[in-house]
UniProtKB/TrEMBL annotation:
Organism: Alteromonas australica
EC number(s) given by UniProt: 4.1.1.23
Pfam families named among the record's database cross-references: OMPdecase
Gene: pyrF
Protein name, entry field: Orotidine 5'-phosphate decarboxylase
HAMAP family hit by this protein: OMPdecase_type1_B
InterPro entries the record matches: Aldolase_TIM (IPR013785), OMPdecase (IPR014732), OMPdecase_AS (IPR018089), OMPdecase_bac (IPR047596), OMPdeCOase_dom (IPR001754), RibuloseP-bd_barrel (IPR011060)
Active-site residues, record numbering mapped to chain: D60 (for ompdecase activity), K62 (proton donor), K62 (for ompdecase activity), D65 (for ompdecase activity)
MF terms in GO: orotidine-5'-phosphate decarboxylase activity
Length: 231
């Protein structure tokens, strides 16, 4: 059976609601992402609960700090037994290398480590406020090269950059893309968006999807239909 390509972002503020959604799933349907909101509210125990149910869990805390601090945080995250963790690529190569080494020396060295490039909520105008004379594509490419140089497993980017990146980076290098919206779905604060099937056709490894699934009247039906659309 093919590994699930959808990572559902469990951005709930209520543990029971999240767990009753998870109770309708099984690990062959999707992976799960725990982000800053749920981790801050419910902590490592919530993450361990999902891991104990057999799900691949992406702990999305986007660490961005000095190398020593990020390394220790990544080791602690890996030791929760999660499938994947992330840092910000703009933290630089020494930071990313320190994070990778800390995971390799942890009790769960198989945890994948990826780096966030340019947030999918940023468009050209927002990026220009932060850095001069660079397009989102150019900045993603630049941070992607640094990430590979540091030896990480892949990056977080938007699916809009995937086709360009796949000209240089082989399928083993993971492209994990939030900002996924089925046709007609509300983009919300996401700017660089794409539909699930277009994203997969562009060479994306995993789709991160939150609100289009979690805010739906029937989240499992939406997830199932996305799975069909990319099968
Ligand atoms: O690292 C992430 O997961 C992430 C990076 C990024 O550039 N953009 C982005 O939206 N995310 C996360 O992906 C999820 C997207 O959720 P929805 O916009 O609700 O589908 C959220 O949990 C974000 O925190």
């Amino acid at each position: 059976m093919q590994e699930p390509r959808v990572i559902v972002a469990l951005d709930y503020d209520n543990k029971e609601t999240a767990l009753s959604f998870v109770a309708q799933l099984d690990p062959s349907l999707c992976k799960l992402k725990v982000g800053k909101e749920m981790f801050t509210l419910f902590g490592p125990e919530f993450v361990k609960t999902l891991v104990s149910k057999g799900f691949d869990v992406f702990l999305d805390l986007k660490f961005h700090d000095i190398p020593n601090t990020v390394a220790k945080a990544c080791k602690a995250a890996a030791e929760l037994g999660v499938w994947m963790v992330n840092v910000h690529a703009s933290g630089g190569v020494p930071m990313m290398k320190a994070a990778k080494e800390a995971i390799a020396n942890s009790s769960h060295p198989q945890t994948k480590l990826i780096a966030v490039t340019v947030l999918t909520s940023m468009d050209q105008a927002q990026l220009s406020d932060v850095i001069d004379n660079v397009t989102p594509q150019q900045q993603v490419l630049r941070l992607c090269k640094l990430t590979q140089q540091a030896g990480l497993d892949g990056i977080v980017c938007s699916a809009q950059e995937a086709q360009l990146l796949r000209q240089t980076f082989t399928n083993e290098f993971l492209l994990v893309t939030p900002g996924i919206r089925p046709k007609g779905a509300d983009a919300g604060d996401q700017k660089r968006v794409m539909t699930p099937d277009e994203a997969i056709d562009s060479g994306v490894s995993y789709l991160v999807m939150g609100r289009p699934i979690t805010k739906a009247d029937n989240p499992v039906a939406v997830l199932t239909s996305v799975n069909h659309s990319i099968a």
